[in-house]
Amino acid sequence: MKRKNINTTLDQDLYKQIKLLAVKRDVKANDLIEEGMKYVLSKYKENYFNNDISKIENIQGDINE
């Protein structure tokens, strides 16, 4: 899968908790953040995309540019 570098800000305490969990689980903090992003997309997918994959693909195309 192609990767994309992004720059964002996060709540400092939230990120500390993610880093601690990553150490305890022996995974990268980035992997946990990505897992959380996938969870949010799956949670709201039906409400906002009405299972229309083409809309999701269009958004992903915009993101990749």
Keywords:
65 residues; 0% strand; single chain; elongated; mainly alpha; 72% helix
Beta content: under 5%
Computed over alpha carbons, the radius of gyration is 14 Å
Low-confidence stretches: none
By helix and strand content, what is the structural category?
A: mainly alpha
Number of helices: 3
**What is the ordering of alpha helices and beta strands?**
HHH
Oligomer: single chain
Q: What's the total number of strands?
A: 0
Q: Using the alpha-carbon principal axes, give the shape.
A: elongated
What does the largest sheet look like?
none
Whole-number mean pLDDT = 83
Distance between the termini: 15 Å
Helix content: over 70%
Give an overview of the whole structure:
With 65 residues, the protein is mainly α. The chain is 72% helix and 0% strand. The chain has a domain at 28-65. The protein has 3 helices and no strands. It is elongated, with a radius of gyration of 14 Å. 0% of the residues are buried. InterPro entries: Arc_rbn_hlx_hlx.
Question: How are the elements arranged and paired?
Answer:
Layout: H1 12-25, H2 29-49, H3 53-64
Helix pairs in contact: 1-2
In short:
One of its GO terms (biological process) is regulation of DNA-templated transcription. The chain has 65 residues and is mainly α. It contains three helices and no strands.
